[in-house]
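# step 3/5: fold
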Amino acid sequence: MKRILIFCAASIMNMAIHNTHGQTVTGSFQPEWATCLGSNSSYYEEINNSILHSDGFVYAVGQTVIGGQQDFFLSKVSIVDGSQIYYVNPQFGSYSDILHGVAEAFDQTIVAVGIVGSSSNVYQECQYHGAGDMVIVRFDSNDGSILNIKTIGGSGLDRAYSVISLEDGSSIIAGKSSSNDFDFQSVPSYGGEDAVVIKVDYDFNIIWMNRIGSTGDDFFKKIIKSRDDTYLCVGSYFTNNKKAGLFCKVSPMGQILQQKVYESQLENITEIASITEDIHTGYLFLVGNYFSPGIIVTSYCAGSFVIKTTFNGTEVKRINKVYGPRTSSLQNSRPMSFNDIIYFDNKLIICGQLPSPLRDVGIWVYTINLESLYESSYSTYWVSEGAKSILQTHDAFIVSGTVYSSDTISAYYQNSFSSAVYDSFMLKVKKSSALSVDNHIAKNSFVLFPNPVIDNLIIQCDNNYEKICFTVFNSAGQTMINGNFIYETVIQTSNFPQGLYIVKLTNSNHTEIKKIIKN
């Protein structure tokens, strides 16, 4: 287990606020806890994605480099104190194995996707086709053991970036492929790398796949399931001799229903990194970054953006966030990034990398009309820090990514390396009054809305990280649906007949009965 640092601060977060002239003042926050995860043997580690599981723990996936070999890992982390419950690193033996996306399945197993770089006798059932194959893995959440693992690939490079798991046990994968043979021979190639979306069953057998593309390199970076049961994918698309942001709406059967590109006048590479949905209004919010090859290495972006769109991808408003000036020197280029976004309490919470003045973990807060509210950074003398993923619990945000540590911070961690290494990290930040996102739900109080309901019923509860069990009964006492969640869940009611329904909600010490009307 890696080193862990607990912060006890009287003021959990000091965020920036607008002054009387509308300018944004930047402050820094102190987390409730922060921890480095993974193995002490690694030179490089990065968390690419994380989820809050219904069992109350955070599960994070990423990559690690041990002895020059790149392998993927899964970490299970307590949200109470940041302690690492377990760390799973299979070390398959190939050169480049990475997990990019993770989801919880209906049976509480963990489904993760990414790429494997070669064949391995550790998973002989997986056929390796060459150049790099998509990989999908099912982990037991209790101990991290691998229950199933398969590859999807061809002779070209194939990579999965994001995954969602459905109620019937199937999963939807989003990524990219440059292959037109083997598993990809049934869908035409457009040249270069194409964006692909694939549905697999519980055993990871392919049900359907689709791809869109240009003669350049295209990809899907993130996929979510929307309120109307379609799948929303974002990434990048080559058009007009440059790369533009890409949005696609995909039907449950895999057809491309909408396709939009968002070009930038600032740089010649635009990538959308993440997407979130306001289920009350139907607006979508996209975050991403601009790049400019030839000025500095492309891993450092020139600026970032947020796009507000309608449900079919029509742009409503866009804001650009650019720090400068940029030069050929990495020290002065002031790179930044918007990497992930969540919607909470009519606000957009974004995580990434903030140059202030070094590259720090950054959090930004915007209204749903894209008005900037707060900008904050976190640093403990690390040289380079960046957040890839942000989650929310009932009272806090969980941020994770990569930090670069050195001799100057050895005192911050037990068993710290004496030489510089990149570490995967996770930290917990309280939702503070400065964020204007105070927890408005009383403890053990359940809130259901809208009521009457048409398509989606939202249930929220302050549950102290406990699992909430729910059952929906019709007026005859028959069970319509049941399940469990932490803090918030959305129940699809579009197929419910009109009438009165009873919702029973229970945690360890509290039970409530609620009535709802389906219109």
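# step 4/5: annotate
DSSP finds no helices and 37 strands in the chain.
# step 5/5: archive (pending)
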